[in-house]
Amino acid sequence: MTRIKFALCFATFTLILLDALIVKDPPYGQLKITGKYLTKLDGTPVQLRGISLFRTNTVRGHLFFANSTANIVKCYWNANVIRAPLGIDLPGNASANASLPGYLTSPEENYQRLKIIVESAIENGIYVIIDWHAFHMYTDQAVAFFTNISIAYGGYPHIIYETYNEPDSADTWEQLKSYHINVINAIRANDPDNVVVVGTPRADLDVEIAARDPINMTNIAYSLHYYTNEDPPLKMNKTNEAINMGLPIFVTESGVCNSHGNGTVNVNVTQACCIGILFFMTNHRIRMTTNMDNEKQVMAVKWIKTACARMVA
Ligand SMILES: *[C@@H]1O[C@H](CO)[C@@H](O)[C@H](O)[C@H]1NC(C)=O
Ligand SMILES: *[C@@H]1O[C@H](CO)[C@@H](O)[C@H](O)[C@H]1NC(C)=O
Ligand SMILES: *[C@@H]1O[C@H](CO)[C@@H](O)[C@H](O)[C@H]1NC(C)=O
Ligand SMILES: *[C@@H]1O[C@H](CO)[C@@H](O)[C@H](O)[C@H]1NC(C)=O
Ligand SMILES: *[C@@H]1O[C@H](CO)[C@@H](O)[C@H](O)[C@H]1NC(C)=O
Ligand SMILES: *[C@@H]1O[C@H](CO)[C@@H](O)[C@H](O)[C@H]1NC(C)=O
Ligand SMILES: *[C@@H]1O[C@H](CO)[C@@H](O)[C@H](O)[C@H]1NC(C)=O
Ligand SMILES: *[C@@H]1O[C@H](CO)[C@@H](O)[C@H](O)[C@H]1NC(C)=O
């Protein structure tokens, strides 16, 4: 009896807590895209820096979807944004024992993990990227999800939407553009102004292709994924070309080893690369979040944090 009462009381308490989100304003207030920059409402460019969690459907990654994470990322890592990747499916070579069911097969479980990060980011006053972390195109499911999530959180200026993590190499920009427009329309029905980041061809590599034929809608940015061990000169070139055409680029993932989390992290190489990347991104005011998916990345990110503090301050 007492136990039941206690449980009921606790449940009510929890519900009240969740219903009444304690909202802390994000550092730059409502964001928008002005030309090729992410800016405050008055047009002043800003740079977001933060951490991307590993997707909700991995054995290691799902542990980070906890109440304390947004606060740790904000207070100990000096970040003003956190990326919350809702795991949809699996990349072709994900090892089965490292994976959990994704949103397509287990929506509620993955949604609840995402929700913890979204709500604790709002409570901590940092921006949160709601990332549809798919490796293939699922238009109907994405439209339904973004309709739902923009109804729930579209009123908060903390929210940034990311429509498609890393597009399948088979998706052309024409196909991607039409997919993104469907998703953006679903979001805009409930949220007229928060920034939407769209995926670019070949897993966020071909930003210059998107720049030649951008989406004619407001507050849209384009994603670039940047891993130091994977074609840095090619990526720099593509990025320069896109920026010269006026494309607003948002680096939603980056890392100092391979995108699979393997490969060497040579401290010297890391420093050289990171300084380059940070200069590059800072000069161009590119927003970045860094992928936190294994111990090496975490070590490297600690280094980036000190570098960032030195360079951006
Ligand atoms: C987060 O906090 C809520 C409310 O205090 C609690 O019900 C929930 O279990 C917590 N979740 C995690 C993953 O810690
Ligand atoms: C694993 O993924 C990478 C990057 O997407 C790809 O280049 C590689 O061919 C894949 N390997 C297998 C065995 O599927
Ligand atoms: C997956 O299983 C293989 C074989 O048992 C093991 O070598 C590997 O470490 C496991 N990977 C993870 C991430 O647990
Ligand atoms: C839709 O949002 C509600 C909360 O607003 C959530 O409980 C539910 O899981 C979401 N459904 C899907 C399919 O994402
Ligand atoms: C973009 O949209 C506006 C208003 O909807 C329209 O006037 C303009 O012609 C469009 N531009 C292009 C390049 O399609
Ligand atoms: C990058 O651009 C430079 C200068 O245009 C060119 O020399 C170089 O070959 C390009 N590198 C790659 C990998 O595309
Ligand atoms: C990293 O892992 C990917 C996928 O398993 C593999 O294709 C690649 O060769 C690995 N690279 C290194 C440097 O180990
Ligand atoms: C790294 O740099 C330090 C100082 O410049 C140098 O002494 C060391 O030999 C370098 N290590 C490697 C593996 O290149």
Automatic annotation (TrEMBL):
Residues 42-283 form the Glycoside hydrolase family domain. It comes from Acrobeloides nanus. The lineage of its organism: Eukaryota, Metazoa, Ecdysozoa, Nematoda, Chromadorea. This is Glycoside hydrolase family 5 domain-containing protein. Residues 1-20 form the signal peptide. Belongs to the glycosyl hydrolase 5 (cellulase A) family. Gene3D superfamilies: Glycosidases. One of its GO terms (molecular function) is hydrolase activity, hydrolyzing O-glycosyl compounds. Pfam families: Cellulase. One of its GO terms (biological process) is polysaccharide catabolic process. InterPro entries: DNA_methylase_N6_adenine_CS (IPR002052), GH (IPR017853), Glyco_hydro_5 (IPR001547), Glyco_hydro_5_CS (IPR018087). Keywords: Glycosidase, Hydrolase, Signal.
